[in-house]
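Side project, low priority. Logging it here so it doesn't get lost.
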Amino acid sequence: MNLYRTTFLVTVFTLLEHALGFVYRIVLSRTLGPEGLGVYQVALTVFAVFLTVSSSGLPITLSRIISKHRARGYRRGEYSATSAAMLIALSFSVPITILLYALRTPFTRIFSDPRCADVFYILLFGLSFTSLYSIIRGNLWGNKRFFAYSVIELAEEIVMIVLGVFFLVVLGGGTAGAEKAAFALLISYLASFGIAAACFFARGGKLRSPKGEIKPLLKASLPITAMRASSSLLGSAISVLFPLCMTSVGYTAAQAMSEYGVVYGMVMPVIAVPCSLLSPIALVLVPEMSECFYKKETEKLNALAGKALNTALLISCALIPLFLAAGKDVGIFLFSNAESGTMIAAGSLLLLPMSISMISTSMLNSLGCERQTLLIFLAGSAAMLLSVWLFPPLLGSGALLVGTALDHTVSAVCSLVLLRKKTGKLRSAGYFCKLAAVLVPVALFGMALRALLIRYLSYVPAVLLTMTAVAAAELVLLSAFGLFDFRALARKFLPKRRRAPSRAV
C-alpha cells in the first residue's frame, strides 16, 4: 500500500474517531453543563500530567528507533527496544500511582473544587494500563501497522462513548455526572490495553532483554516527555491560575469554572478540528521521514516536508472561512451556548498557527530534534502564561484564546525556521499567499451571505445554506487556480484498475 492510500485509510479512521468523540463532547456538555464539564476537564488535565510523565515521549521515540532498526534489518533490536520502553513506562507509572493514593488527602488540596479530586482518582487507576498501551501503540507505529493502530484507537473511543452515554443518559447525569464520565473513560483505557496486548502478541510481538536500549530510549524520549509534561503542567497551571484571576476581578468560583468549561470543553475541541485532520498525516509521516533521515535520502525528505506543510496550510485556510461565517451558529447549534459560538468565530484565525505548529513539531521530532522542540515549546508556553495572568481583567475568558494564539504563533515561527535548516529550503510561502488571495474573498462572501439569509430564512436553513455555499465556492476556486487537484488526489488514493489481458486472435 503506497503512502497516499495509507494516509487515506488512517484519515478515514481518524475522522470517524474524532467525529464520534465530538458527538460525545456534545453529550457531555448537555448532560454535565458548563460547570460539570469544567470539573471533568480540570481533573482530566491534571491526570494528563502524570500520564505524560509516565510514557508520553516513549511512543514516538520507540517508533523512530524501530524505524532505524528496520532500516538496518535488526529485528531483535525492535523487540529489545519495545521491552525497554515498557520497563521505563512501568518504572514511572506504578510508583506514581502508589504515591498519589498514599498521599490522597494532601494532594486533594491542589484542586479548587473537591469534585475534581474524586474524578482524578478514578482515572488514576488506569495510569499504568494506558502507559503500556501507548508503548504497544508506538511499536505498531514504528512497524507501519497503521490499520491495527487505527482500529484499536477507534475501539477505545467507541467503548468510552457507549459507556458514557449509558451512564449519563440512561442512568442520569446528576451531580455525579463527571464521575460517571470518568468511569467510562477508565474502562476504555482498560479495553484498549487488552486489545492492543492481544494484537501485539498475535502479530508475532516478543519481549526480549532491554539491555542496550534503555539508555538510548531515555536520552531521546526525555526531551519529548519534558515538553509534553510541561504542556500538561501548563494546562494544570492554567486550570488553577485562570479561576483565581477571574475571581480576583469579580467572578464567583462557579462562574470561573463555567468559563473554563466553555473554552476547553466547547470552543477548543471545535478549533482543534484541523489537528484531527492532520494527525493521520503526522502518524504516517513520522516513520517515513525517520527512515529517509537515517538512509540519508535528502531529496525525498525535503519533498515530504513540503507536502506536509502545504497540506497543513490547505486544511487550516480552507476551514477559516467556514468558522468566520458560521462559528457563532456552530456554538449555539452544538452546545446551546451563545458565548462558545462567539469565541469559535473570534478564534478562527488560530487554526493557522495551530496547524503549522502541530505538523512541524511532529516532523522535527522524527528528525531527532527533540531538544530544540522542547525549547520552542517553553517559549510558547511563557507567552500563554503571561496572557492568562495579564488579560482576564480586560478580556475575561478571551484571555485563554489570546494566550493560545500567542503560544502557537511562537511555536510555528520557530519550528519553521528550524525545519528549514534541517531539510533545506521550504517552498510553502508562495502557496500560502495564493491560498490567502483565494480564501479571503470567500470568507467575506460567507459572512455577507449569512447576514443576508438570516433575515429571510429560519435559523437552521440559513446556516446550512451558508456553509454549503462557502464550501462550494472554496472547491471551485481552489480547483480553478490550481491549488488543489482533485483528480490527481483520487488517482493517488484509489488503487489502479488492472486492464484485462487481450486475447490472441
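Brief comment: The chain has two domains: 1-231, 272-494.
Revisit when time allows.
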